[in-house]
Automatic annotation (TrEMBL):
Glutamate-gated receptor that probably acts as non-selective cation channel. It is found in: Membrane. This is Glutamate receptor. It comes from the Eukaryota. May form heteromers. It comes from Anisodus tanguticus. Disulfide bonds join 751-807. One of its GO terms (molecular function) is ligand-gated monoatomic ion channel activity. InterPro entries: ANF_lig-bd_rcpt (IPR001828), GABAb_receptor_plant_PBP1 (IPR044440), Glu/Gly-bd (IPR019594), Ionotropic_Glu_rcpt (IPR015683), Iontro_rcpt_C (IPR001320), Iontropic_Glu_rcpt_pln (IPR017103), Peripla_BP_I (IPR028082). Pfam families: ANF_receptor, Lig_chan, Lig_chan-Glu_bd. Belongs to the glutamate-gated ion channel (TC 1.A.10.1) family. Residues 895-919 have a biased composition (Polar residues). Residues 893-922 are annotated as: Disordered. It is a multi-pass membrane protein.
Length: 955
């Protein structure tokens, strides 16, 4: 066979380390199996054939395996006794078996103590191989198949599963791995059913009936063959193998499906299973034919063992052990066995020597790699390397392959890795399946528990606000339930891919009154008195602790509705309202700044900006205000002043136009405004506010800061209308809070009286509520999305609300608009910038032109105040570098030299100032400046000025 070629390479190292000898060495190997079980008898037959095949091919090997078979009789104690006998009396080098995980769990400790490998081809519990290095799990552990099972659940979009397993080392070992695998595919384990290994029929029926009451219809079964068959026979008996159910069995049951009799096969019709993939080969076909020929007469079941992995693993395990023995080589011949009988001395029961060959044999076996009948044999950390899995469907008297699960590629129809598949978890990658009840329809994984029972859906009952949900009495037991949101729910349930029977039940008392608030209704769903609740139910954080909500089908948010008030156009201060307070103050400040800037720029050059101090102040305030109506007549001579005035005139044009338009609109059209502009005023003033009775808004308002005694609830829109009209001071309310759908409907009927104010407080909208963990939530949410996208919900809304009365209230354009400073920040920034630039240029030019004068003033010994006064009086003098056209020079105290402009006599300077404060002379400016300086200093400072050199002593 193919493995012999691989074996030659495997043995090169061992052969090179020893010389060939003619003598042979026997390795004592114990075999512990339940010889009356299918697995035990099959395993022993396959090992016997493997031993014969191996040494017929490798007749020249110097080692031989001697098998010592012990019958465990299916009991842990018997297996332990057999192990002690083999270790103490036979002194075996290795033990093949035990058959079950419970037996292996005990024997591995003995092997660890004796340093003898315990090799099992049928104990699959994932927790075994980590206990001791001397336990070899020459089989696929149960944890390697959970990925395949989870992939099936994901492919069919099942959101909930029930795990059924036996209470044993074998049964419970897989549960943690299944839990993690289902969590990875967003599947919830709704129930775990544990069966004792010795469970009787009454217990099986009782547990199955309990599972029938669950909503979940997907069951994963992990049991031994005998108990698993009994489970399915009883499930068939009570109707749990009908249409709508889905059953998945693990590899332990799947591998033995070929053993089913006609009754068991009929009971398991439609079951899905997974088992390791067996690669086809010529050696496998030859082995199956020889096994059938040898064992058909002895055991028909063994004759059909071509589909069983256990026999193939037993065959390959013995080959691997024989290879390892040959690699270890010859060993010392043991002395004659002493104490051939079992020592019954309890104190000496576990007293046996450690094996010298065991560690070498364990190491050699862990390095073995070859292609066996079951596929590639390779141990990783004492455990068989994981492989792909087949997905089979129990149909008729056999099984058919419907897909493959490859760890790195997911579910595929075939092993061809080049096949392009868009989604490896899609059900399209699985061939057609016959489900329980001979159905070809994929089970949805969830159904209403118990046949004929309907979902009980609670509907809120209230006296008013019945535009969207309405319960009326017309002789029916539960009344007539209607409304926009009821129609939405019915449409959503019709859009589901499966039928869900339900009944709408009003949440009311025997007298027809409401049985409580919306929170009370949600809590009844939590208590399982209802399966769900529908209507105008808002999603809140507190409610989501008790139920699961679908996606919202109506927008969320809370609005504040207040009374509309109208502006009084006869108010004596109406002319101030077009502009806000900050804009008025900013405008006045810029008016003053404009007048001051123009005076500074024009004072030394224009006679219009000269005169006594009172005239200066008047001009500063007069000029900018005269520009409002373009009534200024003063000539602007300075170019910087001209630039500044042009910019200011632009600002004035826009500001006055805006003010005029706003004022005329206010005086000609009646404006509306809310009675409350700031919602925080309601809290501060302790005003009364209102909301619907039983609504979550009561708690919402308390969180906003309102006192509970200041919150009033109403049962109808008419009561709200009356309370809002009265106002808080007259026994009513100042504001009414409600969710957006009801607020819009209320305003559509009373838009001439009320309006919204303040921000919209965000909520998650209206949704349907179901019990925690209900599979309906996901499907209903998808249906809501579908109906929203195709416009069906919007169409229903228009049909329901088209007969509502339209409001003939105030026009939309009648809202009051007061212009704020924000609208003019740009303009004020421009004019402010131009003002600053013009002033800086002017001041810089003035200081540079008269730098000599300012230097002498700063160096003088006069007081600081005298220096400031001198500079101010110097600035106050008129500059003759600018000449106004057609202006006559003043005659008082002015003397000009007709012969020369530059000849100046001392008598040319006046002794006193004129009333106008002007000094005009044809002398140079430096001389005139000195004269002005002399004049500006008072008599008390003359001596100091003379002493400092500013004024000549002769002056």
């Amino acid at each position: 066979m193919t493995s012999s070629i691989t074996f030659q390479n495997f043995m090169k190292k061992g052969n090179s380390q020893r010389s060939f000898q003619k003598r042979t060495s026997n390795f004592q190997v114990g075999v512990i199996l339940d010889l009356k079980s299918v697995v035990g008898s099959m395993g022993l037959s396959c090992m016997s054939m493997a031993l014969s095949d191996f040494y017929s091919i490798h007749s020249n090997y110097s080692t031989r395996l001697s098998l010592h078979v012990r019958d465990s009789q299916g009991q842990v104690i018997e297996a332990a006794a057999a192990g002690l006998d083999l270790l103490k009396n036979v002194k075996v080098d290795a033990i093949l078996g035990p058959e079950t995980s419970a037996q292996a769990n005990f024997l591995m400790d003995l092997g660890d103590r004796a340093q003898v490998p315990i090799i099992s081809f049928s104990a699959t519990s994932p927790s075994l191989h980590t206990r001791t290095p001397y336990f070899v799990q020459a089989t696929q552990g149960d944890d390697t198949q959970v990925g395949a099972i989870a992939a099936i659940v994901k492919a069919f979009r099942w959101s909930q599963v029930v795990i059924i397993y036996e209470d044993s080392e074998y049964g419970s070992g897989i549960v943690p791995y299944l839990s993690n695998a289902f969590q990875d595919v967003n599947a919830h384990i709704s129930y775990r059913s544990v069966f004792p290994v010795s469970a009787n029929d009454d217990f099986v029926l009782k547990e199955l009936y309990k599972m029938m009451t669950l909503q979940t219809r997907v069951f994963v079964v992990h049991m031994s063959y005998t108990l698993g068959v009994r489970l399915f026979l009883k499930a068939k008996e009570i109707g749990m193998m009908e249409k709508g159910y889905a059953w998945i069995i693990t590899s332990g049951l799947t591998d033995l499906v070929y053993l089913l009799d006609s009754d068991a096969a009929e009971a398991m019709q439609g079951v899905l299973g997974v088992k390791p993939l067996i690669p086809k080969s010529k050696q496998l076909n030859s082995f199956v034919n020889r096994l059938k020929k040898k064992s058909l007469e002895k055991s028909p079941a063994i004759g059909r063992a071509d589909l069983s992995m256990l026999g193939l693993w037993a065959y390959d395990t013995l080959w691997a052990l024989a290879m390892a023995a040959e690699r270890v080589g010859l060993k010392e011949t043991p002395k004659a066995l002493e104490n051939s009988s079992v020592n019954l001395n309890v104190s000496d029961l576990f007293n046996f020597k450690t094996s010298e060959v065991g560690p070498q044999l364990l190491k050699a076996m862990s390095e073995a790699k070859f292609e066996g009948l079951s596929g590639k044999f390779h141990l990783v950390d004492g455990k068989m390397e994981s492989s792909s899995y087949q997905i089979i469907n129990v149909v008729g008297n056999g099984q058919k392959e419907v897909g493959l699960w490859i760890p790195s590629h997911g579910i595929r129809r075939e092993m061809n890795m080049n096949t392009t598949i868009h989604d490896t978890s899609s059900r399209e990658n699985i061939r057609s399946i016959i489900w329980p009840g001979d159905s070809t329809v994929v089970p949805k994984g969830w159904e209403v528990p118990m046949s004929g029972k309907k979902l009980k859906i609670g509907v809120p009952v209230k006296a008013g606000f019945t535009d969207f949900v309405r319960v009326t009495r017309d002789g029916q037991a539960n009344g007539r339930i209607s409304g926009f949101y009821i129609d939405v729910f019915k449409s959503v349930m019709e859009a589901l891919p499966y039928a869900v029977p339900y009944e709408l039940v009003p949440f009311e008392n025997p007298d027809g009154s409401s049985a409580g608030t919306y929170n009370d209704l949600i809590y009844q769903v939590f208590l399982r008195n209802y399966d769900g609740a529908i209507g105008d139910i808002t999603i809140t954080a507190n409610r989501s602790k008790y139920v699961d909500f679908t996606l919202p089908f109506a927008e969320g948010g809370v609005l504040s509705i207040v009374l509309i008030t109208y502006e009084d156009v006869n108010d004596i201060w109406a002319f101030l309202k077009p502009l806000k307070k900050e804009l008025w103050l900013t405008s006045i400040a810029f008016f003053f700044l404009t007048g001051l800037t123009v005076w500074i720029l024009e004072h030394r050059v224009s006679s219009a900006f000269r005169g006594p101090p009172s005239q200066h102040v008047g001009m500063i305030f007069y000029f900018p205000f005269s520009t409002l109506v373009f009534a200024h007549q003063e000539k602007i001579l300075n170019n910087l002043a001209r630039l500044f005035v042009v910019v200011w005139m632009f600002v004035i044009l826009i500001l006055s136009s805006t003010y005029t338009a706003s004022l005329s609109s206010r005086l000609t059209v009646q404006r509306i405004q809310p009675s409350i502009t700031d919602v925080n005023e309601l809290i501060k003033n302790r005003d009364f506010v209102g909301c619907q009775e039983g609504s979550f808004i009561v708690d919402f308002l308390k969180k906003q800061g309102f006192e509970g005694s200041r919150i009033r609830t109403f049962t109808s829109p008419d009561d709200c209308d009356e309370a809002l009209s009265k106002g808080s001071k007259n026994g009513g309310i100042s504001a009414f809070y409600d969710v957006i759908p009801y607020s819009k409907l209320f305003l559509s009927k009373h838009c001439d009286k009320y309006m919204t104010v303040g921000p919209t407080h965000r909520t998650d909208g209206f949704a349907f509520a179901f019990r925690k963990g209900s599979p309906l939530v996901a499907d209903v949410s998808r249906a809501v999305i579908e109906l929203t996208e195709n416009g069906k919900i919007l169409e229903m809304e228009q049909n329901w609300l088209r007969n509502e009365p339209t409001c003939a209230g105030p026009e939309d354009s009648m809202n009051s608009i007061t212009i704020s400073l924000q609208s003019f920040k740009g303009l004020f920034a421009i004019t402010g910038g131009v003002t600053a630039v013009c002033l800086l240029i002017f001041i810089g030019s003035y200081l540079y032109k008269y730098r000599e004068f300012h230097r002498r003033i700063s160096n003088s010994r006069i007081t600081i105040w005298s220096k400031v006064v001198a500079i101010c009086r110097h600035f106050d003098q008129r500059s003759l570098s600018f000449r106004e056209p057609q202006d006559k020079l003043p005659e008082a105290g002015i003397m000009q030299n007709s012969s020369s402009e530059n000849s100046v006599q001392p008598t040319d300077f006046p002794r006193n100032h004129s009333n106008s404060g002007e000094i005009v002379s044809s002398a140079p400016e430096e001389v005139r400046d000195a004269s002005a300086t002399i004049h500006c200093l008072n008599l008390e400072d003359i001596s100091a000025a003379q002493h400092s050199g500013v004024i000549h002593p002769s002056a």
